[in-house]
Design brief:
single chain; 306 residues; alpha/beta; three-stranded antiparallel sheet; 10 helices; binds 1,4-dihydronicotinamide adenine dinucleotide
């Protein structure tokens, strides 16, 4: 498998590193607009191959898309991240132009590529990538829910005082502080609903901490996070590479699913060699349905700014 990662910044480099360490890709191409930056990151990462025990080849390119030719998967992380106090939506003006331009260049070199959109505001950027490229809906995946669900599991395990591997939980809806819908009623600890262990007050605290998970890190770091975002992307790429049919919440173009149309929003998706192989419609409670509808309204309002 050949994977291109556009944007060799914090998230792009972290994602390339995890893909390399997981050792399922033959070639990883890092592309950045900053002269020499992607080449430098690629060289630094390649010098970890004997230390980390991987065989992937990592190459860098400054704005040269010919090196990305015949990629199976391309990850778009190019753009600006938010600073403390900023919302993801405030990035739209700059990032929309970048995402559109990059998606078009990627397809010109790799007509069969599956695109994973990471740049924020992610749901709107994934929607824009659909509109700009006209690719079939299975081939554009917005990454947000995989990260938000990992953050939800972290918060749940902390509250439950148990290992994260004992917890299963999912966040659907938009990838924004107000749009995320952590499905607390469906979260389980070893098949037992977490609602059996946690008071309503603690449940509410966990949900809130999950929704502001990115903002909390942005405040601490002075910029947005990269390890968990990179790891989440690498898991989506691995599911495609291994055709594993693993389910992740991803921002998918909805055409009637969940009663929604003409919007990219986080819903459970089966990921395999064709990208989004199935959008899974799970039964939602009335409360969950209302939250998802509100979330869709919020994302649609951001889409209207395009
Ligand atoms: P960063 O600033 O560290 O890296 C971005 C890189 O993109 C820079 O190296 C920059 O030179 C490059 N770039 C800018 N324009 C480009 C172009 N036209 N072509 C190629 N490269 C270009 O930012 P970071 O932290 O890596 O974040 C990247 C994006 O990912 C941001 O929009 C951020 O908000 C988003 N993000 C999304 C997450 C998600 O869950 N969907 C999680 C974390 C970040």
């Amino acid at each position: 498998m050949k994977v291109t990662v556009v944007g060799a910044g914090a998230v792009g480099a972290s994602c390339a590193e995890y893909i390399a360490i997981k050792n399922f890709a033959e070639e990883i191409v890092l592309v950045d607009i900053k002269e020499g930056f992607a080449e430098g990151k690629a060289m630094d990462l390649m010098q970890t191959a004997s230390l980390n025990g991987f065989d992937s080849t990592i190459v860098g390119a400054t704005n040269d898309y010919s090196k990305t030719a015949n990629s199976d998967v391309a990850v778009i992380t190019s753009g600006i991240p938010r600073k403390p106090g900023m919302t993801r939506e405030e990035l739209i003006g700059i990032n929309a132009g970048i995402v559109k331009d990059v998606a078009t260049k990627l397809i010109a070199e790799s007509p069969n590529v599956i695109i994973i959109v990471v740049s924020n505001p992610m749901d709107t950027m994934a929607y824009l990538a659909h509109k700009a490229t006209g690719l079939p809906k299975n081939r554009i995946i917005g990454m947000g829910g995989a990260l938000d669900s990992a953050r939800f599991k972290y918060r749940l395990a902390e509250a439950l005082e148990c290992p994260q591997s004992d917890v299963d939980a999912m966040v659907i809806g938009g990838h924004s502080d107000t749009g995320m819908v952590p499905l607390i009623e469906k979260a389980v600890r070893n098949s037992v609903p977490v609602t059996a262990f946690l008071s309503e007050e603690v449940q509410a605290e966990v949900v809130e901490a999950t929704k502001v998970g990115g903002a909390t890190l942005t405040k601490l770091l002075g910029t947005s996070a990269w390890y968990a975002p990179g790891a989440a992307v690498s898991e989506l790429v691995r599911a495609i590479a291994l055709d594993s049919k693993k389910m992740f919440p991803c921002s998918a173009l909805l055409e009637g699913e969940y009663g929604l149309n003409d919007i990219s929003l986080g819903v459970p998706c089966v990921i395999g060699k064709n990208g989004i192989e199935k959008i899974v419609e799970i039964e939602l409670s009335e409360t969950e349905k209302a939250k998802l509808a509100d979330s869709a309204e919020g994302v649609a309002a951001v889409n209207a700014l395009l």
